[in-house]
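User: I'm writing a short report section on ligand binding and want a predicted complex to refer to. Could you take this sequence and magnesium ion and write out the structure as tokens? A short remark afterwards would be nice.
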Amino acid sequence: MTVVLPVDAHRPDRGVIERAAACLRAGGLVAFPTETVYGLGVHALDRAAVRRLFAAKGRPAHDPLIVHVASFAGARALVAEMPPMAATLAARFWPGPLTLVLAKSQAVPNEVTAGLATVALRVPSHAVAQALLQASGIPIAAPSANLFSRPSPTRAAHVAADLDGRIDLILDGGPAIVGVESTVVDLTGAQPRVLRPGGVPLEALASVLGAPPLEVGPVDSSRPQPSPGLLERHYSPNAPLTLYEGPADQVIEAIRSAAAEARQAGQRVGLLLVDEDLGKGIEGVVRSVGPAADLDAVAANLYAALRELDNGAVDLILAHGFADARGVGPALRDRLRRAAAGRVVQC
Ligand code: TXA
Ligand code: MG
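Assistant: Sure. The structure tokens for the complex follow:
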């Protein structure tokens, strides 16, 4: 049975945190809020517990986990070496939505890294995540707390919908603030590479690094993946999603005619739109992700809107895409393109 405990997002109750920490130390599975999305935590140095986590999520064993630590010192203990670049990025962005991939130390089990010689590390800023790390005194391996290939959870209810009965505890700290996952930067090569755009903007990384980091190109499932988790199907909803990218007027027009055509064919149409699209005569089951002019708000709403649309009431989803290169723009584009699994229409 899965226990759900409410917890204040800013001043978490000590008793609740102690209970969750004890559960983690004993090898249990605990979902908890982070500033990006909810994570499903497990004692990172407990191999059997890590295997149970993969089973609970239905996650393939070749997809490595991010290890969460309370501080830079905690990260240092898990790496073979800490390059100066890592220290610089950590000083600027930790705690926060940045994950660094570094050469792992012997301490990190192969189960966590899927056999890779590297480990992904992050110091989360959320007060509940911090309190849990400090109270437990252990590194916590935590993927997003969703079933494999479902959208990441940004509310405790999303976690329960996917994992009720499969995990021990859910800490309900309210909605995640950022709403998309951390930016993953690989520092094991000659140059830093962004494996996944996320909560830390690329221009913020560039301002610290002195030059834009290399970005891993479009996912090509026929080639070996630089990051095994970066599979196209990763964020795919149940109803097929088609993404429309381009100038707003043309996107609206294209979605309107596709929606009309699908309705005529007897299909129930889900529409993932922005506030600016509302009242423009597009008919279907509409969810707005917020104003296109406020990408941070869009990021905070995206996964909840996707889950609402994807609850079985629609046969297909038509989505308004984002092209902004700044802020969370690249992360939004990346997640929607994955959800679309190749069904992208350039307007
Ligand atoms: O914001 C986040 O990062 C959230 C919260 C819970 O911290 N976590 C998260 O975890 O999104 P997950 O497991 O859903 O995504 C982790 C990503 C995957 O794409 C995985 O392949 C990649 O990080 N990754 C983990 N370890 C890696 C490694 N050693 N080398 C390359 N990529 C790695
Ligand atoms: Mg995930």
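A remark for your report: The chain has a mean pLDDT of 93. The pocket of magnesium ion (ligand 2) is lined by residues 143-144, 152 (CB under 6 Å).
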